[in-house]
Please model this.
Amino acid sequence: MRKTFRYRLYPTREQSEALEGQLAEACRLYNAALQERRDAWDMAGISLNYYDQANQVKEIRAAGDLGLANYSACQDVLRRVHKAYAAFFRRVKAGKKAGFPRFKSRRRFDSYTFPTYGDGCKLRDGGKLHIQGVGVLKVKLHRPVSGQVKTVTLKREGGRWYVCFSVEVAIPGPLPRTGAVTGIDVGLESFAVLSDGTVIENPRHYRKAQAALRRAQRKVARRRKGSHRRRKAVRVLQRVHSHVRNQRSDFHHQVSRKLVNAYDLIAVEGLNLKGLASGVLAKSVNDAGWGGFFAKLTYKAEEAGRQLAKVKPNGTSQRCPCGATVPKTLGQRWHQCLACGMSVSRDHASALEILRLGLSLQVLTPTLVGVA
Model:
């Protein structure tokens, strides 16, 4: 399976300028390839593909018209253009909103990739990374790179530089069985409630950072467009957003790891996250980041040999685990079943119902008998 290891780079001023120059050349190549495809179709009705454009790279580099140092990195930029067109035609065929491939601004083109490790990029001893055309850069290896490195991507984010190693790793063996199962009801008042009544509080990282975001946004708004001071203010704003995103991701990693370690089966709702994130509760839903949490929970469960059951969310808050219907408005936060006498919080009852549905979908081994 593939994993990505991301590390902070600490280039010198000269190296940072070289990285910016390489990235600008990658952006220029992307836009030129996009323009060539448009012109070929408009003028002659010819649809160019990746190979038509990749065959020109040697000649362009020989003429000195391309400053991107690594040949394979140039090819990867052209593959990116090809993927953009392929995705466009796939959306058209599916009848979706297509979105024709657009030109990229230098300010928004933030990464380029070396598709083969060792060809233009390689880790050296002492926490150093050699990049063709840039030199040897200091890298913060806060954890070892495990597995076989396949590709290396250099990424600019908020004026800082990062390196991302995409590696091929063997799937680890399954974790020992615990005999415990759980259902999870995600929410906004609390991040999640488990079927045993455990409440995971919602950290609300975005809400807590709103004051800092407002100050940073005001600085951007006051600066003249195109000025150096505005670019500095934009970097500050980007770093605040990046900090919130990192906090949320770290929280998701910690919670998903604890759940996977503790339970053999985890039942969750198959929510329409795109629809929820576009409604009146969009800010709170995006702040909770359920999509990122479920993605991390899914791959961690797969690695550990755990079962992850996604159930239909329809009516999970309107039914009792005993099967009786208990209608509630959104404002009613307590579940009181007249049929079986269950009296618990609304979210706890939903988690129990989600677990019941999850268990009904699974072919369980005899060890999965306890309801956590």
The first strand starts at residue 2 and ends at 10. The radius of gyration is 25 Å. The mean pLDDT is 93. Residues 87 and 98 are 8 Å apart (CA to CA).
